[in-house]
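Hi F.,

I've been meaning to write this up properly since the lab meeting, where we talked about keeping a consistent format for the predictions we share between groups. The idea is simple: the sequence comes first, exactly as it goes in, then the structure tokens exactly as they come out, then a line or two of notes. No screenshots and no reformatting. I'm using this chain as the first example so we have something concrete to point to.
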Amino acid sequence: MGTIMELHRPAAPAHAHTGHATCRICGSRLRHTFADLGMSPPCERFLPADQLDQMEPFYPLHVQVCERCFLVQLQEYVSPKDIFTEYAYFSSYSDSWLAHARAYTERMAGRFGLGPDSLAVEVASNDGYLLQYFAQQGIPVLGIEPAANVARVAVGKGLPTLVRFFGKELAAELVRQGTRADLITANNVFAHVPDVRSFTAGLKLLLKPRGVVTLEFPHLMRLMEGNQFDTIYHEHFSYFSFLTASRLLAQFGLTVFDVEELRSHGGSLRVYARHDDDESRPIEDSVGELAQREEAAGFTQLETYSAFDEQVRRTKRRILEFFLQARREGRTVAGYGAPGKGNTLLNYCGIRTDLLDYTVDRNPYKHGKFLPGTHIPVFPPGKLDETRPDYVFILPWNLKDEIRKQLSYIREWGGRFVVPIPDVEVFE
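Output, unedited:
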């Protein structure tokens, strides 16, 4: 049976913001804007009806780039403790994400020979969406997940889960207890960690001498190519190119030996790393090829980053033009999904119920609540059939194919789909 495990929990550090921002990798002063999305509330802070009249916290979404190591980053305006202690995102509500997780576990078990004597550790294990597939193959697992409400779901599936933030300190505690990993999985967590140096040091410590770390994170190159400004929010502290991520891992004695480009989350990387002295895993051609492509695309030049801000402003104007035109024509627009990225987009564009009537989501945790900042209500998906909107505005655009299949019935009343990113597009 799974257990929620507790180790000694250190006091959380104070998060003071004084003076000038500095790079979280190299400490250089940050002087260059990547994108300024104004003020926005934390994107997963959904509101119950009785809180709509209370004051809401808004923080800057001003993303900067380091001129020395080219890490694109947001200051720590909101602490991870505030964001993740009670979390509204459950991975298991996306069928395509579950399929992605299952395929990953099968590939890793085969490629790295994982079995009953191995240990697979997932950092930010959420509701056990991924570890359940390792467990089904008879591979021992350990989840590390700071959100207690989400970890409880994993425990209900029989998956041992430690309710803590991961870093050097926790890794050292686990090693002292005799725990080390053959595989450490860190999917969509690297970007969520303000102290990336402690996190990376922890990976190094926890990994067995012949172990493998895999990191999946949104690829900055794809974010920029695909105009994915809505993937900027307070829980994403860093935005990595392959070059920057590889350099960070190298600083802590981890060598990248393979990389794959994935379609998930609008374009992600899966980076494979090992200890520097583990020569049993040679460096694949994919590593040099992607590094060369990023260099050729200008990812070691400041000018490449500074052009993004104006591109984002142009997109905002086009999104607002769609909504204003729909309203002028007397058409109704409802949203599909209540993802974090949707809240960035709606707040940046100033879209409230005067333009978007409501949104729907499959996650019952969000039903009856209201989106942060915009106060747009969230309903179950059946609401679409009741009100028959002219347009369904897909906020998790990275799942647009899955959603269009699920909602094919809107065509019965002539409903159409709208996707905002990379540019506003209307589909039958």
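Notes:
DSSP finds 14 helices and 18 strands in the chain.
The first strand starts at residue 4 and ends at 5.

If this format works for you, I'll send the rest the same way.

G.
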